[in-house]
Amino acid sequence: xxxxxxxxxxxxxxxxxxxxxxxxxxxxxxxxxxxxxxxxxxxxxxxxxxxxxxxxxxxxxxxxxxxxxxxxxxxxxxxxxxxxxxxxxxxxxxxxxxxxxxxxxxxxxxxxxxxxxxxxxxxxxxxxxxxxxxxxxxxxxxxxxxxxxxxxxxxxxxxxxxxxxxxxxxxxxxxxxxxxxxxxxxxxxxxxxxxxxxxxxxxxxxxxxxxxxxxxxxxxxxxxxxxxxxxxxxxxxxxxxxxxxxxxxxxxxxxxxxxxxxxxxxxxxxxxxxxxxxxxxxxxxxxxxxxxxxxxxxxxxxxxxxxxxxxxxxxxxxxxxxxxxxxxxxxxxxxxxxxxxxxxxxxxxxxxxxxxxxxxxxxxxxxxx
Amino acid sequence: xxxxxxxxxxxxxxxxxxxxxxxxxxxxxxxxxxxxxxxxxxxxxxxxxxxxxxxxxxxxxxxxxxxxxxxxxxxxxxxxxxxxxxxxxxxxxxxxxxxxxxxxxxxxxxxxxxxxxxxxxxxxxxxxxxxxxxxxxxxxxxxxxxxxxxxxxxxxxxxxxxxxxxxxxxxxxxxxxxxxxxxxxxxxxxxxxxxxxxxxxxxxxxxxxxxxxxxxxxxxxxxxxxxxxxxxxxxxxxxxxxxxxxxxxxxxxxxxxxxxxxxxxxxxxxxxxxxxxxxxxxxxxxxxxxxxxxxxxxxxxxxxxxxxxxxxxxxxxxxxxxxxxxxxxxxxxxxxxxxxxxxxxxxxxxxxxxxxxxxxxxxxxxxxxxxxxxxxxxxxxxxxxxxxxxxxxxxxxxxxxxxxxxxxxxxxxxxxxxxxxxxxxxxxxxxxxxxxxxxxxxxxxxxxxxxxxxxxxxxxxxxxxxxxxxxxxxxxxxxxxxxxxxxxxxxxxxxxxxxxxxxxxxxxxxxxxxxxxxxxxxxxxxxxxxxxxxxxxxxxxxxxxxxxxxxxxxxxxxxxxxxxxxxxxxxxxxxxxxxxxxxxxxxxxxxxx
Lengths: 369, 593
Prior knowledge:
The structure holds 2 protein chains of 2 kinds.
Chain A: E1 11-20, E2 23-33, E3 38-42, H1 49-57, E4 64-69, E5 72-76, E6 79-80, E7 88-91, H2 103-108, H3 118-131, H4 147-160, E8 165-169, H5 177-194, E9 197-202, H6 205-211, E10 214-219, E11 222-227, H7 229-234, H8 239-244, E12 249-252, E13 257-258, E14 263-267, E15 275-280, E16 290-294, E17 299-303, E18 310-319, E19 324-331, E20 334-341, E21 350-355, E22 360-364
Parallel strand pairs in A: 3-9, 3-10, 7-8, 8-9, 15-22
Antiparallel strand pairs in A: 1-2, 1-4, 4-5, 5-6, 10-11, 12-16, 13-14, 14-15, 16-22, 17-21, 18-19, 18-21, 19-20
Chain B: H1 3-9, H2 16-21, H3 25-50, H4 65-70, H5 73-106, H6 112-124, H7 127-138, H8 143-146, H9 152-158, H10 161-186, H11 189-197, H12 202-209, H13 214-230, H14 233-242, H15 247-256, H16 262-274, H17 277-287, H18 309-338, H19 356-362, H20 372-400, H21 407-420, H22 424-435, H23 438-443, H24 451-476, H25 479-487, H26 492-521, H27 524-529, H28 537-545, H29 550-578, H30 581-585
């Protein structure tokens, strides 16, 4: 497949609202997906990410707003372009492979109405079969394939179309961990090689960060943050984003003192004698019920004999292949979790905890409605 | 423009047109068709119950006296009998169908295709044919006597409540079997495995797993109940001689008595329709939030319980004996009776085998009609009725299987169930009451005593049960399969053609065949609405069966049945010949259901 054939699409979503009866699934969502980028929409169940993807695909019709794909307004006032006219393809969560068609015919489906000759179509299908590594399965039916193989066929079908936009609806959620990692890499490389614009939804933050050029975090039908993954990790816009993208611990703090434009100083709640410099969130205030949010990457463990750091006790330890993840008790019913260290501390060991201010944020725990 | 400025410019604005677009014009068209086919004619007839004078059937414009009359005496007993008989039929049909569906779908018994096929055959045989067959077995001097079996005891049993329950349960068995089979196929063996590994014995496992298919079980019960409530074939044949009144027969009596009592008949009709409401609501409560959807883009094969060799043989043989009594014996009775030309099968001079009855079918006495033209008329009717029914039933099944059930779906559901319980005779009389109204014949269209009116009536009588039967297969298809086709460039029509049609092809072919054959054997609507000079086969056969020329009627019945089976064979052969391999894999063992 050559990049030159594909014109990656720019996607503009403007104030899209979707109601199901009295329930508001999307509440004025707006975002722009730049051509050729990989955007991941991240959110918990019920956040509206699936609805947004289905609105993009044309499977659902928004209640209001505007959606533009490439140069074409596909939804707007008095306008609705049906899915088949939107020049996109999609990988479904349940694969959606047609059980009466062989792998080859499933993959060739998007080309049936194209202007390609029969030979060109066959060539493109064969090339895609090779590319996705399923050439040997071409004449099998979907029920004769494993889950990973079925999802590979779904990916191949989506890429065969050579359209400017590919949508992914939690494609890895039905696979085991091993296959998930493998297929995630294939999705990333094949999609980027194809040069298409990708919109991918998931509830798994590690999947989102691994794949995305930009991540959009959705909550209760609203897009709460949309930016580069590293920015979301380092500068979460709200307590919800911080929590959903993974924190090691969250503690109520008092006496927050502003020391610069970007930094505050707080007294560590579990070590009253120690003051910590933490980051101020750019958008979230800390005036009502300030909490300290600590990312796991910013927690370092030292031996008890170390002069710096706050005291803690190792409560649990788990080997994860590269090192050890620890749970450290820092106060009554207060823990820091997923604390990674290359060396193992034993359960019950007394340790010292050193925090990296870059990975600590102070924000209100409750967000304003 | 940056993302930030773009976001700032954005203001969510409601679009009034979006709401307008959601008006389902297709839904309105469907309801308009249903109004003309079923609702208005039936309501017209039911109106006679409270306003007989409106239709020149009495002196009052409004009266409730017919209601109290209908619930007294003979008609009152008929209503009570119908209610408890239909409840028993529902229970028997669901119990046996669950057992057979489990054996066929989830175990390794021999001849699974044969058992499924025999269910189809059972579905094709009308209840009046079954009754005729059993009469030819158990009546004194008939087949049973030929084997020296003293059948008088069975004869008295058969001509009573137990006979009626037996025949109606057998008739309802295939409906339950197909509905429950869908549930069984979708029930992954992991549920059974989960119960077993957590310490459940066989019984507890069954008690744990069966509620998962409770929607299918209840659906089967409701259909069986409604079918039994509305059955006319048994009422017309067995009910007449059994001195056991059931509602459809008392309704028939009220209409054909002299003078006819249409208002009381209308009350009985109303009771038949309303009786399905409680089971439907019970089903709706159980179904809340559940889906039948099991045919998805993810495919998994069904694992079967492996019986040991001896058990396998024993269970297969037991099923064989059961099916012989339910289907084989009555068919045998009808067939053997057709090869004699005497009053009874065994006469004082022995059994006289002859083909005379078959000759008489096509060279009848002066007062009878030959079977040829009526059978051709029935086939034509079958073709048009089956085709029309298939389209309308599919549209209704789509609505019923909708993933986001709204009030519209509930209404359709209750309406269709209620309609199954509308006896053909009620539809027939309703058609006469409505389509023979002066303002209709003079100013709209004069369809009275025409073939189109009969076709409409037959479609109206077939659509409710066919729509219910198709809801299972249609509901099995995950919406993502069609959505995938749409987002990959298929128009609505192509998505339907390339996904729904192949996945449903088998079900659609069988639905067509079933309606075709049911139309040929249909009696109630045909008898009331046939075009003079163009009697369908069932009407002609019925005139033979009511006389001393019953063997000719039996021969005509056998010929009609063979012709129906022949058509099924031809259609299935053509389907096999022209359909791609992938289409035929759907529903086969080891393939996705």
